[in-house]
Amino acid sequence: TLTLRTQRHSTTLTKMAGADGDDSLYPIAVLIDELRNEDVQLRLNSIKKLSTIALALGVERTRTELLPFLTDTIYDEDEVLLALAEQLGNFTMLVGGPEYVHCLLPPLESLATVEETVVRDKAVESLRKISQEHSPVDLEVHFEPLVKRLASGDWFTSRTSACGLFSVCYPRVSSTVKAEIRQHFRTLCSDDTPMVRRAAASKLGEFAKVLELDYVKSDIISLFTALASDEQDSVRLLAVEACVSIATLLPQEDLETLVMPTLRQAAEDKSWRVRYMVADKFSELQKAVGPEITKNDLVPAFQNLLKDCEAEVRAAAANKVKEFCENLPEDNREQIIMTHILPCVKELVSDTNQHVKSALASVIMGLSTILGKDNTIEHLLPLFLAQLKDECPEVRLNIISNLDCVNEVIGIRQLSQSLLPAIVELAEDAKWRVRLAIIEYMPLLAGQLGVEFFDEKLNTLCMAWLIDHVYAIREAATCNLMKLVEKFGADWAQNTIVPKVLGMANDPNYLHRMTTLFCINALSDVCGRDITTKQMLPVVLKMSEDQVANVRFNVAKSLQKIGPVLEKITLQNQVKPVLDKLATDKDMDVKYFAHEALSGECLPYEYS
Amino acid sequence: MGRAWVGSETKDWSLPLRTGVLAGQPSPASDGRGHYVTEADVISTVEETESKGESEEAGDTGDSGEYNVYSTFQSHEPDFDYLKSLEIEEKINKIRWLPQQNASRFLLSTNDKTIKLWKVSERDKRPEGYNLKDEEGRIKDISTITSLQVPVLKPTDLMVEVRPRRVFSNGHTYHVNSISINSDGETYLSADDLRINMWHLGITDRSFNIVDIKPVNMEDLTEVITAAEFHPHHCHLFVYSSSKGTLRLCDMRASALCDKHAKLYEEPEDPGSRSFFSEIISSVSDVKFSHSGRYMLTRDYLTAKVWDLHMDKGPVETYQVHEYLRSKLCSLYENDCIFDKFECVWNSSDSVIMTGAYNSFFRMFDRETGRGVTLEAWRESSKPRAVLRTRRVYTGGKRRRGDVGVDSLDFTKKILHMAWHPAENIIAIAATNNLYIFQDRVNPDALAQ
Questions:
Q1: Which residues form the Phosphatase PP2A regulatory subunit A/Splicing factor 3B subunit 1-like HEAT repeat domain (chain A) (predicted)?
Q2: Which residues of A554-585 are buried (b: 16+ CB within 10 A; e: fewer)?
């Protein structure tokens, strides 16, 4: 008999069906009926339990009744179709094993033609999966004809889906069928609609991998060249991606004649989107073509991309500076960087576009490990310092967030003179999101700069954020204090920040008084029982008499929060009386939170 | 060319064999409906799809002579922008069909702010058979259930379903005037008064601003964008027109931001004819690429112009749509008609252009001969299979019978919106609350020649 896991229904159903009738049928009947429920959530639920339904129906009825029904349900919502496409990929055993796996092709074929890309892609993914479960004979009798039907379908949706299926059947069919498959792929590469040509271009690399090397050289290269000079730049840019896989497949001596002309042409394409793609894939291309071609061709190409007239291209190339330099052949890496790359990098530091500058700032620090201490001090440091003074906050932030790379090579002291003004300026930036970003780097900076420097220069900033007029900043500032205590220890906290935090409890502004409570919530755990009991608790208890209700109910919340840190006796003698009093407060919110604290999960028995 | 129905032989334009008027009856209930009929039954936009033969939105009702509406749905609801305290009308400014990708059809519709993607699909089967209830919905006795039943699909009457697929919102601060689908099949542009955005059809939460003509100081504003369209074949080219009568062609290959145009098409102003109204009447209300991609057709208040992409010094052809109104500009300004936005369209072979006028008149021009004809879309004269009358506006000389005097033109009967079937000689003309579909009555003799 069946064991069911239909959580949604099992309880009600057993009650209803318990008297007589077949207990195991009822839940399945519900699942089947809900395949056509008006509520999409219920349909989705049923589709996700399709294996349960199939199991109950048995392999025969699944093949003859369930699958035909599912083949026609392509009217449904995307999320239902997506779930269906996924389920069918794991359905082989439920239709009777590999012998019958071809029964799954019709519903997946109709799913492979819907307009929604994610559904189509999922159907193709499932088709690829079940193709492996076809015997070589079934593959030729059932699967390959499906691929052909899709490839010659009326609508481009079916033809795009076909592109993803060639590579899975090719290795397992006879040489006559192989020739047909190559022909179909060739046809789709010159399809009328750019959508299909794009799909073919994006599967070109994958298809090349399963082809015999001779066909790669004869067929694939000519298709690659054609797609790379397509009239639509949306197609050409996808050929760049294929370039990576094709170059990996070919022997080194063929690259120059078969791939490089096309790659050179792409790097200088009239459309910035194609050049952008080259820049974006530069590291992969570099690895695929090897060190010699990199030295002779890619270095000048990279220089050009760094100087491109379109900012998007420069930004993409700037992003790759570190990776490109890292992967240069070690024997003359330093020389190439110093004479060819660094001059371009220097120009980018004062680029007119802030995205370019900030892309560079996010990787430039990484060059110091590659170039070593002397070069960093002489050539890179001036650039870092210039970027620390950049007008765009994002550039400065990116430099600050990557300080650890430089610290390893030259030590952060070299920078600290310029660092401080940059940090202070960001800390006081008019945009609160910028202030928020710099707060997040504070623990990292504190770790790099050390406790003395921090106490001397940065502590005041951290305390100032606690009284920022934006709540998100005050909240981040409390969290920051906690991380600093984790780094510097409870003793440091007791001497430097705890007194200041507790001092705010007497502030005339109730928002600042509440910040004290929020800080205590965050700090009690890291500061430990001693500091919490002796220094923080008295302040919290005293605040229970605050005239502002918001402060009082936050006292109740804080007491609940710090409870686990305190001793039972303290809870009993000091905390409970205060909470009892708050529980009779005239304000209903205060009452509510006091009761919450009294019945709080952490301390139910002490209080009750 | 030489097809009989162009030029003055337009008597060959007739209502299609089986059809008549679409969306004919004014009904108060259809206020603000999508598709064709919008804004209290004034049709605000028309677009024909690349269907096979028949017009897409109309179904055949046999001999009754009238089209039934294929499908009607509410595309946009009236909305309110709380930040700016502005009402957003539900009126649809444009609809555009997507290239067909499967048995369903897809269209984009836009009001002033929000663009939506719709799926129109047909369904002729419905599932039947429940386990736990009968077809009337009565719950069955549980103890009678001894076997499982899988639903079966049975044929039913054809149903047309329209479903919203995506909503592209928050992309525009000003009023959207155009949407255009790119030939790459995955992106489209939307233009408002000052900006043009590019969207991916599958991505709703992000769009790229490609043109921004908003000056730093709004006091310096001298022109606005009036229409924009992608090139039919080159996915990197698009054109936009301005209220100053210029066209700017932009190449997206050159740069991610297209604030700098690749080419500017402008007609040198004739200093002699300058008047108070010069700037208003030179504002371009519509721009359309020819199917070949070589020409652009624009419409301003008094003329339709054809521009060659290779020639930026002026239009290669200029057609007077209703020159006789030049002396009436003052009163047309007073009743706001001078701001009417007429659309213009190409026929499938780019040999004929068509655009709208007043008094339910619309005009067609044969580009080869340069001859124009005035036709009338009017219910009384539009019996099924009836051949359309040519009309003439009397502007002097010998007055013929049936001529209409300029002073008796009805300026409330405007023909602003129209569409020409992409492959066949079927046109759709929107005249306030009526949509007329006319078909070229193929003249066997003409074909034989």
A1: 291-372
A2: bbbbbbbbbbebbeeebbeebbbebbeebbeb
